[in-house]
């Protein structure tokens, strides 16, 4: 798959080349999809966080325009995140009010920028691939399960929730689906089915496919919603998008809030700031890694620059009265699946959020949530497709088991806890593989005499200690043993001690030990060298 090269050397955008390229016709329709997906998510997350609805939209706007501009990622989309809702809800009270809380958001932004400057983003290089693949598949499954209630017209939980438990109505993901099925609105179902049909079949009609399918979905949804009015299929207000109505410029500017800088000495403000900075940075790095996995052009996003961009976004969001933000995998996945090619899509979606709030809020409020659910249902299907499970199975159990564990853990807990559990299982398999490969083993026979050669690996760490100990202990009596360290750049001190002790005691078994290029001590390789090698 080809892409017109429009990026500058530092990951920015060459506007002249961009407008002469073929990317614009892909980025603009994709930005519409992201806008439609982000709109209810921003509102839902603000509602669940106990913050003003405007704060959720403001965060989406800043995430699109500010972070989109500064980020080195071409496809990642930032905005308010479901993973931060509990932190925000609890912290507004703990810090002493919303103005104190947004001061914590400002400080968190500064801390994230510092993390970027000290190159903390390199931690993303240590996320095992099957865990990231599992996280993507889990998000797909969550999208399908969470959007089904919206597709049938009933969901008491807020739009954008990714957790298994749903405190708002005492349900969990499964029981919420069952509750929704008992309260079906057939008008919403019809709109969802028509929207799915358009999303699937419209792009296949070449002569008319220039009109973006999501735009047609929204138009069809609004028309059907109006047609059902006054019938048994009529939609209720809670089954439509609902953004705040702004009637004048003074009313618009009155929605902004300023941080209370007098609270900068409060302990809870700093605790909240550090919590947001760490959680938001981890979720951002995970999302960035996941987006790079599904990028059809396989570009690698600069992680440290992303932390700087997210920090700047949170700084601006906090100063204006918005919520904390992260790179969000749901919006980013929708962006990729909609065919985006550059960061223009993310920036434009932020502009669309702003313009919709200022100029067409009444029109936006006519969009049924069920037609937007159809867009997310299709995104979820693409993330959790059956072929992905088959692909991971064929890669072996050491890849498949961490993949499946991550999926189950994310679905039944939340993103960060689930990924943490998946990481533990993934690291177990990495260590298991490491412990099995500390040397090359060869046996040669001359008459009745066996010569056993153990050629040590390039890096022999403490993790290899047990495997080498067991091997040496079980070597046959009366044999000649050669331990060759000529390829080794580093051998751990504990392993050296085992080798030396074995050489001194081997004579009791009639074993003659010869050491080749085994030093008494090895210097630890520089950190940069180890990171590059990893």
Describe this protein's structure.
The chain has 534 residues and is of the alpha/beta class. Among the domains are: 49-129 and 184-376, no CATH class; 437-533, Transcription Regulator spoIIAA, CATH 3.30.750. The chain contains 22 helices and ten strands. The protein has helices at residues 15-20, 24-48, 53-70, 85-94, 98-117, 129-151, 173-181, 186-201, 213-228, 249-253, 267-294, 303-320, 329-337, 344-359, 361-364, 369-383, 386-394, 397-412, 415-436, 465-473, 493-505, 527-533, and strands at residues 78-80, 165-166, 171-172, 325-327, 439-446, 449-456, 459-460, 480-484, 490-491, 512-516. It has a four-stranded mixed beta sheet with strand order 5-6-8-10, covered by helices on one side. The chain is elongated and about 95 Å long. 45% of the residues are buried. The chain crosses the membrane at residues 32-55, 61-89, 101-120, 126-145, 184-203, 215-235, 269-288, 308-330, 351-380, 400-431. One of its GO terms (cellular component) is membrane. Its main location: membrane. This is STAS domain-containing protein.
